[in-house]
């Protein structure tokens, strides 16, 4: 008999300790503790929460922002690595699933960075490392393209869980790739972006994207968005005085939970810091699919054919057998076994 989970979810709206990796990891562990103390079984964190977003790309020229890029590279982390290990230990200690956004540094490239979402189980295993497929607009000055090697839905204690970062939630093919794998819980991570065009309501745009995914796929979405702290604004203003006005616009951050009918559950946060909680019953994903099941009976797979290349993108491929074996050890962590428990 089908028995889908019911659980409490938490999603965080906060600012990192800007470019301070150790302090931000400590903050993440504190927030994991707080969410677990409030009986949450899943907690979602914003995009590149460890340890900050490259706002200089939007308020400075590439030359002016270049020193900040170096700071970001030095504060970025490797996955797996000591910082994720500490967060995974906190997840296991508090028996809570965690999705966290990080600036990931390539282990073989000190200036190659990825916008990465890490999914951790409630027993402390790294389930996935999803690198944002296409950095958005000015972000191309900072991050490399990701690949689809971890564009996967993970089997967790709270149900089938998938993740996408920010603008990826606008990509219907990426979203369909997750839905087609049975996703029922989706995490969409964002950053506050007040430097968008003047007539663009960022908070409403985030809500709209989450509602579209939920209504089309009949799933639940946790939206987690960062905020711009006074510390971040001051750091950017010190290098570029015009940044103060550019970063002060309201309605730039939305955090909340959206149900399979596309409606927001409870009270979301707009711009303010805090944690949003919601009760989730995955059985609510069943009945709406009688009308529209876009990964099942309400589609024509004899007409439409989507193919996803899941091969990992590497700078080089070695053909000698011993090197190939070593390479497999490096990449197989994305499909962990019992031995990968942290």
Automatic annotation (TrEMBL):
This is Aliphatic nitrilase. GO terms for molecular function: hydrolase activity. Coiled coil: none annotated. SUPFAM superfamilies: Carbon-nitrogen hydrolase (SSF56317). Residues 7-282 form the CN hydrolase domain. Belongs to the carbon-nitrogen hydrolase superfamily. Nitrilase family. The keyword Zinc-finger does not apply. Keywords: Hydrolase. InterPro entries: C-N_Hydrolase, C-N_Hydrolase_sf, Nitrilases_CHs. Residues 323-342 are annotated as: Disordered. It holds the Pfam family CN_hydrolase.
């Amino acid at each position: 008999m089908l028995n889908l989970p019911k659980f409490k979810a938490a999603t965080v709206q906060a600012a990192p300790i800007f470019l301070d990796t150790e302090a931000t990891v400590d903050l993440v562990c504190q927030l994991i503790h707080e969410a677990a103390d409030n009986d949450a079984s899943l907690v979602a964190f914003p995009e590149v929460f460890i340890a900050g977003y490259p706002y200089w790309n939007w308020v400075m020229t590439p030359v002016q922002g270049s020193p900040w890029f170096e700071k970001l590279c030095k504060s970025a982390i490797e996955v797996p690595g000591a910082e994720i290990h500490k967060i995974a230990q906190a997840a296991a200690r508090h028996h809570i699933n965690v999705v966290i956004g990080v600036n990931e540094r390539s282990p073989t490239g000190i200036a190659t960075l990825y916008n990465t979402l890490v999914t951790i189980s409630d027993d402390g295993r790294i389930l996935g490392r999803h690198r944002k497929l296409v950095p958005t607009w000015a972000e191309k000055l900072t991050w490399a393209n990701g690949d689809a090697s971890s564009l996967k839905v993970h089997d967790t204690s709270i149900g089938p869980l998938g993740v996408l970062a920010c603008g990826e939630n606008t990509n219907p093919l990426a979203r369909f790739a997750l839905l087609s794998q049975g996703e029922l819980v989706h995490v969409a991570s964002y950053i506050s972006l007040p430097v968008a065009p003047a007539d663009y309501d960022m908070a409403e745009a985030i809500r709209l994207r989450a509602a579209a995914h939920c209504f089309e796929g009949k799933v639940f979405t946790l939206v987690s968005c960062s905020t711009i702290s006074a510390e971040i604004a001051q750091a950017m203003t010190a290098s570029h005085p015009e940044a103060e006005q550019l970063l002060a616009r309201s309605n730039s951050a939305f955090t909340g939970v959206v149900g399979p009918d596309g409606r927001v559950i409870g009270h979301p946060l707009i711009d303010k810091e805090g944690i949003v909680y919601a009760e989730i019953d995955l059985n609510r994903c069943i009945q709406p699919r009688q009308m529209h099941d876009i990964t099942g009976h309400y589609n024509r797979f004899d007409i439409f054919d989507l193919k996803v290349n899941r091969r990992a993108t590497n700078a080089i491929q070695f053909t000698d057998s011993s090197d190939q074996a070593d390479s497999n050890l490096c990449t197989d962590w994305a499909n962990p076994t019992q031995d990968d428990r942290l």
